[in-house]
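Read as chain and fold; for instance:
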Amino acid sequence: MDIENDFKLTSVSGRIQQQQPNPFAPIDVLLGRWEGRGFNQIWRPFFGVPRQDRFLELNETAEILEFDIIPGDIPNRGLLQADVNLHGLRYLQQIKDANVRGSDGLPAGIHVEPGVWLTVPQTTNPQDGATIARMGNIPHGTSFVAQGTALPDINGAPPFAPASITPFAIGQPGNPVPFPESNLATPSQFRTPPQDIPNVTQAMVDNPNSVLAQAIVGQNIISTSTFKISTTPLNPPASGGGAANIAFLQGAAGGPNAQSAQVDAIFWIEKVKHANGSIRHQLQYSQRVLLNFNGLSWPHVSVATLLKV
């Protein structure tokens, strides 16, 4: 479907009608197939011998991210205000290890996530401006809704704030609890073996977003669109969201096995101008999932740089 052509001026009985706004904007820029590389790290619970509560998994990744349109309006029925129509895109994210092979000889799978991106119009109850939302489903047993906004476009490349993987006491991000596995110079059987991550550096572990900055060195980025979403309200008390987990992840006595408690993500869609004058779209993202277990929130940070195919 060509969204732009579907919303151009139309003529009825010889009269020019006012151009309709594109209801899929701003997320229509995501349409298509994106491919590229990234970096993933996750503190995962460890149950084995010798006994330790954690294992730091690091992966160099290869990713495919595909979006297609959900045709037509998605009516949401109102009680406290008039009905609103949402508009959406289906997506499928597939991430594999760039170095490690499975028993079948193919790249080892890391992540698969089907879901939906939505545009939500301005509402009066709640009093919320136009927002966007991402609804994702992860086969580990987690589903989430992360709502947020499209920030104003900027000229040039995006800024990348540092991202930390250091755990902290649940609900106390200002109380970090570092562990030796974060130091690549310290040998550990509780971290991905060096031969599986030949290009991972200490700088990448210290700040995964440095991978994004390195990926665009030397590029002529003429503009950037930014989507910022979270399962916690970014515009309290209006914007919604949340995460849900199967019973195994939530656990029982003694706390969760590995509860996905919060998802925060920023997507940057960049226009890159090449020396021959051609322009290509590039997508970069940084996502942090907080996994709660053993009294701590353990940041699971994923970043990637993808080109539209």
